[in-house]
Write a structure and sequence with these properties.
The chain has 167 residues and is of the alpha+beta class. It has a domain of 113 residues: Alpha-Beta Complex (50s Ribosomal Protein L17, Chain: A). It is 46% helix and 12% strand. The protein has 7 helices and 3 strands. Strands 1-3-2 form a 3-stranded antiparallel beta sheet. α1 packs across α2 and α3 crosses α4. It is elongated, with a radius of gyration of 29 Å.
Length: 167
């Protein structure tokens, strides 16, 4: 029976699964966005978010905890120097999963997993554009079109004649 066993094993033995998640986490930190299957993206989110939380506080203990999972010095350095600065004020939710459809070969559901603070397109969206109005409120609140008011046109003032023009 599978009582209280919620972790997705992804069809792999434990050593293979840990190695795969470690490699995917390194790729995510290096490239800031990767494409994979939806099941792997969800497993990777559970794997990498605690590592990002550890990276917010740069101590030797936290570096050792993260290095024990990732096993790549360059990635750990990138995480603690660059990524930690961007996520310093965020209380959690460091990754975003976007579904991209189904793979042609086996119809597996594909997804993109990315670091939230590194997607420039999502950061630029204005908050006011997301606000919607109901149809009724839109009709009541719509102001009537008014004719533009034109400013009065002043007569041009003649410039005083210069002595050179008089000669």
């Amino acid at each position: 029976m599978r009582h209280n066993k919620k972790f997705n094993h992804l069809g792999r033995k434990a050593a293979h699964r840990h190695a795969m998640l470690s490699n995917m986490a390194c790729s995510l930190i290096t490239h800031k966005r990767i494409s994979t299957t939806l099941a792997k993206a969800k497993a990777l989110r559970m794997y990498v978010e605690p590592l990002l939380t550890h990276a917010k506080e740069d101590t030797t203990a936290n570096r050792r905890l993260v290095f024990a999972k990732l096993k790549q010095k360059t990635v750990v350095t990138e995480l603690f120097q660059n990524v930690a600065e961007k996520i310093a004020n965020r209380p959690g939710g460091y990754t975003r999963i976007l579904r991209t459809g189904f793979r042609l070969g086996d119809a597996a559901e594909m997804a993109i997993i990315e670091l939230v603070d590194y997607n420039e397109n999502m950061l630029k969206t204005p908050k006011a554009a997301a606000k919607k109005t109901t149809r009724r409120a839109g009709k009541k609140a719509a102001p009537k079109a008014e004719a533009p008011v034109e400013a009065p046109v002043e007569a041009p003032v003649e410039a005083p004649a210069t002595e050179a023009a008089a000669e």
